[in-house]
């Protein structure tokens, strides 16, 4: 059937901010869906609160609402925009849950569901309904029981016996689930699960620990055509969430018979659940001893694995699912990569490995054993001819300093312990176990990873032991080692170890070239090379024999290579991918051929139609260099992918690669403390007094000279890694013991900390002649909190016009003085009416997407044109479709339209149990949301609500301020009192508030006896908390309060400025008018 003509306006629901369990893959699926629906001529309305996504760009949907994804907001939009149908299957669990809730409450009368019917969603998502459906079609399920309270749970535990798996219903990424081995653990997990499930329902089931786990990515249309896009196998046995497991596609250890059985079961399940217009994934488990096959669960929507399967096979799942949702069948759709009908099942002749990326180093106190609740923040994917090659390429892609299976220095008992315990580095411990002589049998008993994988890893270790300097002169040996995916760097490390020589990566590279062992590039095509691929989507491999005439891609057009940001992680997320995608779009509009290079399967940048050519490769020097030598690009953009490609700038310069835009010596100058200080003094600017310590002793002398508090940090890091504010010499001693290990022989930087200063973020573009100020943003939190974690307001809330002018002029001086060609981000602090320079980054920053949305000028696109040689003025003119560019004091800047945008960060504390909620100079947020309206109060309220920090409008508010903040307590207290809150506070704070004539009760600290604040929280007597702290407040009190706040989802504010913003928000929230929404296109018009 061709497309439906009875619907005109379709509402697409996005997935909101990036959190653990819901990352960039839903920007990829949402962007594909919007593009596809628009191409078909539908009017598309989009709601999503995340400004860092491509899909929320004003040119994608017809109407873009950057609003909290909440029922009442959506209901108003449906009414205002006269929506005919909604597509809730592209926005992860967020979209599915909100659509289901609205449907159940009867808020969607007359609005049709596309992609999956409410009935199918219920059957697939609700665990008891799913169980019934599976029993009906004869599927085998783990033995399980439901519980709605602790009594039910304890009965179930007695019946089933330990170990037990607990899963909470309707949660995301396995939230509230886990494995219990004894009664104590079980009680803790059952309580956590009942708390986290929105319907207080948990499923308690027999443990399948040690079983093999598989996923099938399935598509079915309404004519009952079914295809498997891809089978995926988990490297880790059952007990680890698939999002946290290493996975391999296609499944490698299934017999043909088992695979067919699984394939047929998948089709039966989709038919029974009723998914007939889109993609789903079904998870299975097989008992390796008996072959018993069990169904674990299915998602009736596009999922994280869909993004992986899409990138692994080149089959555009999200696009096909969208077309099916509006009436097409598979045989009517063409696969853009091969030009074959979409009803052809992909067959792949290579192996794809995905490894998750964790950031436990930022949360040292969080539990880091992997379980059924997801903890990873991103992932990498690598493609190779064999499992060994793709696994070693994936390890190099992670950017955790690995160049392969690096050695681990530990005793054998600890290594065996870590092989048994699922953890982020388990695969490295397994190979270390083989190095220490463990057998495959012993290894299998310890970790239950399939023997076939263990055999492959053991072979890699055997090969490692024979790599000596002979390899540099023996073509056959070199070739066989490269076929197994060993990196040049790893080979040089092994030569040094086994031959006692000093070789480096470059020696191996030269030897390999002189022996004629070269990489060749294969296309990712969906049909095992039976059809020619139409869009080049390439991966490198080394062939087992020398090929007679390797034909690499030839093109005589002007071309530019864009280096991506690699895996998503805290400190470097989707914002950088956004900039890379914008660069590709801008180059396309200029008629320049774009080559995208990245290894992150979740993102829009690695989509087959974002650029002209895509290389899916590790972002390390060896692989980037090969692509440059193969392609000879006319320019390379290293400034848009965060720190990942910037680190390569120097090495690329040395081999004569042409870096577009800001040259690498400028990047170095901005990073190098001493050079930068000279630059600051030459131009008459100010920075906080500072010093550089190369030894521990030196650091104490410097800190003494500057006066505490000081800010200490290692040089060359991203996301404030290892940065801390230190208030005394004892604390500094403690820190130096930890930090010297962080800094790789680089010195530690010590700055005077400007307490309570106002921080500003400025994004600018420079072409060497003119400077465009993209924005001046004011941080809502005061100095000392990482800019990625701070909420910020554009335009600034309470700065004088002359102060803003000064900041803009300083920015111009810096940009022209440094010689920036392209984007630059500057952070300032305003302290006692003076402007101090905190840092300058001559690259794209994480605020670029937010600023582009708020002002209507796509900064990354403008910067791309400038980097390729166009003038800033003509680039601005090309993109100025909202007529905002103006000139003032010989500066170019945007004309602001009177709306106020607020960005708020979103944190992963819910997922990382044990992690503490304190913010500081080290970044901890995983994503961001945006609130936009005509005044600051409403925008702040919307941003808080979108970030999941609901604002209470009545009830009891708990206050506790540190001594330096106490003088401001009455102002905040009277604001809350005016709104009808009952106030309770700890002793010191209460005395100050009472003295100012505001009624307030005393509540005891935990250390002061009972009943105390913890009791009040547990009795649900506290509805909001404002608690400021410094390093000296009673740690125990603060931690307990924060854990309770998290558990009970109490709105919580930790800084004075956030409390002030909260009162402004409450002023605006007196009636319901604040929740009305306006499309981004109307704000910008």
Kindly describe this structure.
The structure is a single chain. The protein is of the alpha/beta class. It has 37 helices and 40 strands. The strands form eight sheets. Strands 14-13-10-11-12-15-16 form a seven-stranded antiparallel beta sheet, with helices on both faces. A seven-stranded antiparallel beta sheet has the order 31-30-27-28-29-34-35. Strands 17-18-21-20-19-22 form a six-stranded mixed beta sheet, with helices on both faces. Helix 1 (25-39) links the parallel strand 1 (9-13) and strand 2 (43-47).
Q: What fraction strand?
A: 15-25%
What's the overall geometry?
globular
What is the first-to-last residue Cα distance? 39 Å
Structural class: alpha/beta
Percent helix, as a range, is 25-40%
How many strand units?
40
Unreliably modeled segments: none
Q: Helix tally? A: 37
Biggest sheet record: 7 strands, antiparallel
Strand order of the largest sheet: 14-13-10-11-12-15-16
Q: Over the alpha carbons, how many angstroms does the gyration radius reach?
A: 29 Å
The average pLDDT is 89
Offer a concise description of the structure.
With 1085 residues, the chain is α/β, with parallel strands linked by helices. Helices cover 36% and strands 19% of the residues.
Question: What is the strand and helix layout of this fold?
Answer:
Elements: E1 9-13, H1 25-39, E2 43-47, E3 63-65, H2 71-81, E4 85-87, H3 92-104, E5 112-113, H4 118-125, H5 127-136, E6 144-147, H6 150-160, E7 164-168, E8 178-180, H7 183-196, E9 202-206, E10 212-220, E11 226-234, E12 247-249, H8 256-273, E13 278-286, E14 293-299, H9 304-313, H10 317-325, E15 351-357, E16 378-384, H11 387-397, H12 412-420, H13 426-435, H14 440-447, H15 451-465, H16 475-483, H17 488-499, H18 505-514, E17 520-523, E18 537-541, E19 559-563, H19 574-589, E20 593-598, E21 613-616, H20 621-631, E22 635-637, H21 643-646, H22 649-654, H23 664-671, H24 673-682, E23 690-693, H25 696-706, E24 710-714, E25 724-726, H26 729-739, E26 748-752, E27 758-766, E28 771-779, E29 792-794, H27 801-818, E30 822-831, E31 834-841, H28 848-855, H29 859-867, H30 872-879, E32 885-888, E33 891-894, E34 900-906, E35 927-933, H31 936-946, E36 956-960, H32 969-978, E37 982-985, H33 987-995, E38 1001-1002, H34 1013-1018, E39 1024-1027, H35 1035-1048, E40 1052-1053, H36 1056-1068, H37 1080-1084
Parallel strand pairs: 1-2, 1-4, 2-3, 4-5, 18-21, 19-20, 19-22, 20-21, 36-37, 36-39, 37-38, 39-40
Antiparallel strand pairs: 6-9, 7-8, 7-9, 10-11, 10-13, 11-12, 12-15, 13-14, 15-16, 17-18, 23-26, 24-25, 24-26, 27-28, 27-30, 28-29, 29-34, 30-31, 32-33, 34-35
């Amino acid at each position: 059937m061709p497309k439906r003509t009875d619907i005109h306006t379709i509402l697409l629901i996005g997935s909101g901010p990036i959190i653990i369990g819901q990352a960039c893959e839903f920007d990829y699926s949402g962007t594909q869906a919007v593009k596809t629906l628009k191409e078909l001529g539908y009017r598309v309305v989009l709601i999503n609160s995340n400004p860092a996504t491509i899909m929320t760009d004003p040119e994608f949907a017809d109407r873009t609402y950057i609003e909290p994804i909440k029922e009442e907001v959506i209901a108003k939009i449906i009414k205002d925009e006269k929506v005919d149908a909604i597509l809730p299957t592209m926005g992860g669990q967020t979209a599915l849950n909100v659509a289901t809730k609205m449907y159940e409450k009867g808020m969607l009368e007359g609005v049709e569901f596309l992609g999956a019917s409410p009935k199918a969603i219920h059957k697939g998502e609700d665990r008891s309904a799913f169980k019934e459906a599976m029993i009906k079609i004869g599927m085998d399920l783990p033995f399980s029981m439901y519980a709605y309270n602790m009594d039910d749970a304890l009965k179930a535990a007695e019946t089933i016996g330990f170990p037990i798996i607990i899963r909470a219903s309707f949660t995301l990424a396995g939230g509230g689930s886990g494995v219990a081995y004894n009664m104590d653990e079980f009680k803790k997990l059952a309580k956590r699960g009942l708390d986290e499930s929105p319907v207080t329902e948990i499923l308690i089931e027999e443990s399948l620990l040690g079983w093999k786990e598989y996923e099938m990515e399935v598509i079915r249309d309404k004519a009952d055509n079914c295809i498997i896009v891809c089978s995926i196998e988990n490297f880790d046995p059952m007990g680890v969430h698939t999002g946290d497991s290493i996975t391999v596609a296609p499944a490698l250890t299934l017999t043909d018979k088992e695979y067919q059985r699984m394939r047929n079961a998948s089709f039966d399940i989709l038919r029974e659940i009723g998914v007939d217009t889109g993609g789903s994934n079904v998870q299975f488990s097989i008992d390796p001893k008996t072959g018993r096959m069990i169904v674990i669960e299915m998602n009736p929507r596009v999922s994280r694995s869909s993004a992986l399967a899409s990138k692994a096979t080149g089959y555009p799942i999200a696009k096909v699912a969208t077309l099916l949702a509006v009436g097409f069948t598979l045989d009517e759709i063409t696969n853009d990569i091969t030009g074959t009908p979409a009803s052809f099942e992909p067959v792949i002749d290579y192996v794809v490995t995905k490894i998750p990326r964790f950031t436990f180093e930022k949360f040292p106190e969080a539990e880091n054993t992997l379980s059924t609740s997801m903890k990873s923040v991103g992932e990498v994917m690598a493609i190779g001819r064999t499992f060994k090659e793709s696994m070693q390429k994936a390890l190099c892609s992670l950017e955790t300093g690995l160049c392969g299976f690096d050695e681990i220095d530990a005793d054998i008992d600890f290594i065996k312990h870590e092989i048994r315990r699922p953890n982020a580095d388990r695969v490295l411990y397994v190979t270390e176990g083989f190095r220490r002589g463990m057998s495959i049998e012993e290894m299998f008993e310890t970790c239950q990873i399939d023997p076939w994988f263990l055999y492959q890893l053991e072979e890699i270790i055997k090969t490692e032991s024979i790599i000596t300097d002979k390899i540099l002169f023996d073509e056959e040996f070199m070739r066989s080692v490269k076929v197994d995916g060993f990196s040049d760097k790893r080979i040089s490390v092994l030569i040094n170890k086994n031959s006692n020589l000093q070789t480096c990566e470059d020696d191996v590279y030269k030897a390999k070239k002189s022996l004629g062992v070269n990489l060749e590039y294969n296309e990712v095509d969906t049909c095992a090379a039976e059809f020619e691929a139409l869009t080049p989507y390439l991966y490198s491999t080394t062939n087992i024999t020398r090929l007679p005439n390797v034909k690499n891609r030839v093109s005589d057009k002007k071309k530019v290579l864009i280096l991506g940001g690699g895996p998503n992680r805290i400190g470097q997320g989707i914002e950088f991918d956004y900039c890379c995608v914008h660069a590709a779009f801008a180059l396309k509009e200029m008629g320049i051929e774009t080559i995208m290079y990245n290894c992150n399967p979740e993102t829009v940048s690695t989509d087959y139609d974002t650029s002209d050519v895509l290389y899916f490769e590790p972002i390390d020097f060896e692989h980037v260099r090969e692509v440059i030598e193969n392609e000879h690009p006319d320019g390379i953009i290293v400034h848009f992918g965060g720190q990942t490609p910037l680190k390569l700038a120097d090495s690329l310069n040395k081999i004569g690669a042409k870096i577009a835009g800001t040259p690498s010596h400028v990047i170095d100058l901005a990073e190098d403390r001493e050079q930068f200080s000279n630059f600051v003094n030459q131009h008459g600017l100010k920075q906080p007094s500072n010093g550089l310590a190369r030894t521990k002793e030196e650091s104490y002398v410097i800190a003494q000279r500057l006066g505490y508090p000081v800010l200490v940090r290692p040089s060359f890091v991203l996301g404030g890694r290892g940065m801390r504010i230190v208030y005394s010499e004892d604390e500094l001693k403690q820190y130096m013991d930890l930090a010297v290990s962080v800094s790789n022989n680089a010195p530690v930087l010590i700055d005077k900390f400007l307490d309570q200063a106002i921080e500003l973020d400025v994004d600018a573009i420079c072409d060497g002649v003119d400077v465009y100020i993209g924005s001046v943003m004011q941080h809502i939190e005061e100095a000392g909190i990482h800019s990625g974690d701070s909420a910020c307001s554009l335009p600034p809330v309470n700065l004088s016009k002359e102060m803003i002018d000064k900041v803009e002029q300083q920015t111009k001086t810096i940009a022209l003085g440094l010689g920036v060609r392209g984007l630059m981000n500057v952070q300032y602090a305003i302290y006692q009416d003076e402007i101090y320079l905190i840092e300058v980054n001559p690259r794209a920053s994480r605020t670029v997407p937010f600023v582009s949305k708020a002002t209507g000028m796509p900064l990354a696109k403008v910067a791309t044109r400038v980097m390729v040689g166009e003038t800033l003025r003509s680039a601005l003119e090309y993109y100025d479709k909202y007529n905002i560019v103006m000139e003032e004091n010989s500066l170019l800047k945007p004309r602001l339209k009177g709306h106020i945008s607020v960005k708020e960060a979103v944190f992963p504390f819910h997922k990382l149990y044990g992690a503490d909620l304190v913010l500081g100079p080290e970044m901890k947020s995983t994503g961001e949301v945006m609130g936009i309206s005509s005044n600051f109060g409403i925008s702040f309220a919307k941003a808080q609500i979108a970030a999941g920090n609901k604002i209470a409008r009545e009830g009891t508010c708990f206050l506790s301020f540190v001594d330096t903040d106490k003088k401001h307590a009455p102002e905040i207290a009277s604001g809350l009192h005016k709104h009808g809150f009952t106030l309770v506070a700890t002793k010191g704070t209460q005395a100050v508030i009472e003295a100012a004539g505001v009624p307030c009760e005393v509540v005891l600290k935990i250390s002061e006896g009972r009943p105390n604040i913890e009791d009040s929280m547990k009795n649900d007597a506290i509805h909001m908390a404002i608690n400021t702290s410094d390093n000296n407040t009673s740690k125990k009190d603060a931690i307990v309060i924060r854990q309770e706040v998290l558990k009970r989802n109490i709105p919580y504010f930790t800084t004075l400025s956030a409390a002030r913003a909260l009162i402004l928000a409450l002023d605006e929230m007196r009636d319901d008018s604040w929740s009305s929404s306006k499309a981004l296109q109307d704000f910008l018009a």
